[in-house]
Amino acid sequence: MQGRIAVRPYRGAVMGQIIIKRGDITKEDVDAIVNAANTGLKGGGGVDGAIHRSAGPSVMEECRGIGGCETGEAVITTAGNLLARNIIHTPGPVWYGGHSGESGLLRNCYINSFKCAIENGSRTIAFTAISTGIYGFPVEEATRIALEEGIKHRGDFDRIVYVCFSARDLDVYQKIYEELTK
Ligand code: APR
Predict the structure, then answer these.
(1) Ligand 1 closest atom vs CA 50
(2) pLDDT computed for residue 16 by the predictor
(3) pTM value?
(4) pLDDT in tens, 36-65
(5) 20 to 30 A from 90, CA-CA: which of 1, 65, 120, 131?
(6) Torsions phi, psi of 134, nearest 5?
(7) Starting at the edge strand that comes first in sequence, how are the strands of the sheet with 2-8 ordered?
């Protein structure tokens, strides 16, 4: 495992941990990983491509069957060859400068992913930094939204993991987590 890990227990040692780590989300052993998808659920580059490559073709077949997903909504599939049980696919917003409802749409990604996970009995969930790659959403603002929703939902899960791809993202997540919980 790379990077540092921040673990904050919440109301006891097991329930409601928020874990911030550097790593590869395709390797996470959780009930559900959340994929930064596109509205066509057609796969692509970035983390979406990495997840589909590791999961294998059955997941793409399921995505084809679902047909698509609106920005900010979330759909669930099995996880093929991954350790995770399910993949929740949520298309984040493309960043157009911040005046096109991007923040609300990104918040919906987290809210609807958590809702989808709860409905499907997930107790552990891992997120990537939705919209902050190809879609260009500023990392600090996206991280604040991601962590605010995680803090709100921590009582519903045993473990919420934020998997950062870069050392810089890890620093931002840790800094904003400290700010939000001090
Ligand atoms: N493994 C893990 N994380 C990755 C990888 C990877 N191989 N590649 C990128 N990431 C990280 C990025 O560093 C960023 O923190 O995933 C986060 C989200 O970036 P993107 O994957 O670019 O997702 P997004 O900005 O939401 O753009 C979505 O990209 O792949 C396409 O089909 C996807 O069209 C959609 C768009």
Answers:
(1) 7
(2) 77
(3) 0.93
(4) 999 999 999 999 999 999 999 999 999 999
(5) 1
(6) -55, -35
(7) 2-8, 17-22, 159-164, 124-127, 32-37, 86-91, 75-78
In short, whether 132's Cβ falls inside 6 Å of ligand 1 is yes
109 lines ligand 1 (CB under 6 A): no
Closest C-alpha among 128, 113, 139, 135 to residue 44: 135
Q: Which residues are known catalytic residues?
A: 48
Q: Is the CB of 75 under 6 A from ligand 1?
A: no
Q: Is the minimum distance from the CB of 133 to ligand 1 under 6 angstroms?
A: yes
Distance CA 174, CA 176 (A): 6
Which residue, chain included where needed, has tokens 């919440």? 10
pLDDT digits 0-9 by tens, 142-163 = 999 999 999 999 999 999 999 9
What's the Rg (C-alpha) of the chain?
15
Distance CA 55, CA 142 (A): 26
In tens, the pLDDT along 88-104 reads: 999 999 999 999 999 99
**Domain limits, the chain:** 17-180
Q: How far is the CA of 11 from the centre of ligand 1 (A)?
A: 33
Nearest CA to ligand 1 atom 21: 46
Q: CA-CA distance, 52 to 83, in Å (whole number)?
A: 13
Domain at 17-180: CATH code: 3.40.220.10
pLDDT at position 1 over 60: no
